[in-house]
Write a structure and sequence with these properties.
Order of helices and strands: HEEHEEEHEEEHHEEHEEEE
Helix content: 10-25%
Strand content: 25-35%
Strand order of the largest sheet: 2-8-10-11-12-13-14
Oligomer: single chain
Radius of gyration: 21 Å
Number of strands: 14
Number of domains: 1
Number of helices: 6
Length: 291
């Protein structure tokens, strides 16, 4: 059948694309991805159980069939030291990567007999658009063996179906959409545990209900959301994103070699470069306790 109108073309595209949904955190994923902003840090300081919102990378295509997965993560009883360490890393990043703000005019929608009408409120909205990326992992995740930014979810299609969608319509979403990364993700998926969290009932009605984690998770923070860089692990250096491991006990700056990340000690009072002897997540790895 040949479409002869612009509306027909749009309908054809929608029909072709509506075989998949946009993914948030899936129960089998190894990490939960969010973005750290100054406003979020203020909310974290005020909350006993701060909530993080899932951030889906902009380079992933937007599908027409809605969303699947969990959109929020709640960190129960976050220690004051964890809050302090998150802010310390954010402030360090901002020393060499200034905050960028997008200013937009606020508007509201009014329903009229002639349809919806957009009305400007007269206020301006300021949105931080280059917040550091944060990946929440299990404390046991072994960076000396497995790569950052891979989901390692061997049951992603089953997760998709459990949220009420047809399994036949499942489409893989990767933060590192290159062949070798997808192959490695698939190869090692059954070797990496999913993020330990208390999950709401798996249902399309649960999208905005938070998963719950505690102090047994760690935060890997990168100054820039460059997931291929995190995957390749090309190392610490001038002009490259800075990467940190953050826990309630301390902050560790990370370096990488051949795709795997290892610690650089943070000296008391500043960010130094003395190397730990053991990789993060390994049996003998140490963690720096900030004063």
């Amino acid at each position: 059948m040949k479409w002869t109108t612009a509306l027909g073309v749009v309908m054809a595209i929608a029909a072709d694309e509506c075989h998949a949904s946009n993914h948030y955190f899936m129960p089998g994923d190894a990490f939960f991805h969010s973005v750290l902003t100054s406003n979020l840090l203020d909310e974290i300081d005020r909350s006993e159980h701060p909530v993080f919102t899932y951030n889906r990378p902009d380079f992933l295509p937007s599908m027409f069939c809605g969303y699947v997965g969990f959109h929020k993560l709640q960190y129960n009883k976050m220690p004051a030291s964890m809050k302090k360490n998150l802010r310390q890393v954010y402030d360090e990043i901002r020393e060499f990567t200034p905050k960028r703000i997008e200013i937009t005019k606020e508007s509201t929608t009014k329903v009229t007999d002639d349809g919806d009408v957009e009305i400007l409120t007269g206020r301006e909205l300021q949105t931080e658009i280059n917040g550091p990326t944060v990946l929440f992992y299990n404390h046991s995740f072994d960076m000396s063996r497995f790569r950052l930014a891979l989901k390692y979810n061997e049951r992603w299609a089953d997760d998709f179906a459990e949220f009420g969608h047809s399994r036949d319509h499942a489409l893989l979403e990767s933060f590192v959409p290159i062949p070798e990364a997808i192959a490695e993700d698939w190869r090692d998926a059954n070797l990496v545990a999913s993020l330990k969290a208390n999950l709401p009932p798996v249902s399309v009605k649960s999208l905005d209900k938070p998963i719950e984690v505690g102090s047994d998770v760690v935060a890997v923070i990168a100054s820039k959301a460059d997931f291929e860089f995190l995957y390749h692990g090309s190392g610490y250096g001038w002009g490259k994103p800075s990467v940190y491991l953050v826990t309630a006990d301390g902050i560790t700056r990370l370096d990488a070699s051949k795709g795997h990340w290892h610690p650089i000690r943070i000296a008391p009072g500043g960010f130094g470069q003395d190397t730990f002897p053991d990789p993060v997540g390994s049996k003998n790895s140490a963690e720096l306790k900030t004063p």
